[in-house]
Amino acid sequence: MSPDTPAALLRASPLPPLEARILLTHVLGWRRTELITRGDDVLDAAALARYQTLEARRAAGEPVAQLIGAREFFGLDFDVTPDVLIPRPETELLVETALTAMEGVSRPRVLDLGTGTGAIAVAIASMRPDAQVWALDRSVEALVVATRNATRLLDARRPGGALVLMQSNWYDTLDTTRRFDVIVSNPPYIASGDPHLSEGDLRFEPRGALTDEADGLSAIRIIVAGAPTRLSANGVLLIEHGYDQAEAVRALLSAQGFVEVHSEQDLAGIERISGGRLPG
Ligand code: GLN
């Protein structure tokens, strides 16, 4: 048995089988089923070398999404680089909750703070072609990635217009007269000393997208405090947060005058999103 066939490479791989298959189909440009139907093809030396490099980098810890430059989120295929947080499945709950909040609102104005890949903003804009969506990030490198995703994934003729991408540290560069119907954010909410920061994929993601270098709530405090002057009457704020932060975030929302303050559980049963409505 030749060692440089897909079947042999997958058998010998130190990686979890699914990851090895993802890297191999990426290198070969094949569909997953071709790994079976063409499992005994002998690969050329260049493809073999490319695969072996990616396999070694993955074995050393680099995230699969960064190695293949892509991650699926809300059914859309997002470009991913080391400059942005890798979209997570639990964040789809934030998109779903936002879409529910804007039901019945025509041409809703939506603001995404700390957009990163643009995943949240682009997913909302793709589901609501009439929405006017603004996406902000303080990282210029992230805005490059978000722009690429928005351009590739959104219909250029959508009635809501192109995604507005702007460099801003939270609300800092937003014109104070501008109002939104919905504000969403998946901010850095991991506390600076949390051991997860030095484990797994997180080691390779931008630290500024993960932690506030404080207690994990400082970005959320800024977002909540600034929301009342950015939301329209009856506007909704929705924030993703850590597994143990729901109570603290609900308290911040209530203290800021939000009503209908609630949390939503992710698929693992963890309260992952909290939000509220600004009274009319
Ligand atoms: N959900 C991410 C994690 O725990 C953290 C993302 C964030 O801080 N917004 O891996």
Q: Could you say what the CATH topology of the largest domain is called?
A: Rossmann fold
Major sheet attributes: 7 strands, mixed
Count of runs of 4 or more consecutive helical residues = 11
C-alpha end-to-end distance: 72 Å
At a glance:
This protein is an alpha/beta fold and 280 residues long. It has 11 helices and 9 strands. It has helices at 6-12, 17-28, 34-37, 45-59, 64-68, 92-101, 119-127, 140-153, 207-210, 218-226, 246-255, and strands at 70-73, 76-79, 109-113, 132-137, 164-167, 180-185, 231-240, 259-265, 271-277.
Structure description:
With 280 residues, the chain is of the alpha/beta class. The chain folds into two domains: 6-60; 70-277, Vaccinia Virus protein VP39 (Rossmann fold), CATH 3.40.50.150. It is built from eleven helices and nine strands. The strands form two sheets. The chain has a seven-stranded mixed β-sheet, with helices on both faces. The longest helix has 15 residues, at 45-59. It is elongated. The chain starts with 5 loop residues before the first helix and ends with a strand. The site of glutamine (GLN) has 9 residues, from loops.
SSE arrangement:
Elements: H1 6-12, H2 17-28, H3 34-37, H4 45-59, H5 64-68, E1 70-73, E2 76-79, H6 92-101, E3 109-113, H7 119-127, E4 132-137, H8 140-153, E5 164-167, E6 180-185, H9 207-210, H10 218-226, E7 231-240, H11 246-255, E8 259-265, E9 271-277
Parallel strand pairs: 3-4, 3-6, 4-5, 6-7
Antiparallel strand pairs: 1-2, 7-9, 8-9
Helix pairs in contact: 2-4, 6-7
The structure holds glutamine.
List keywords for this structure.
11 helices; 280 residues; alpha/beta
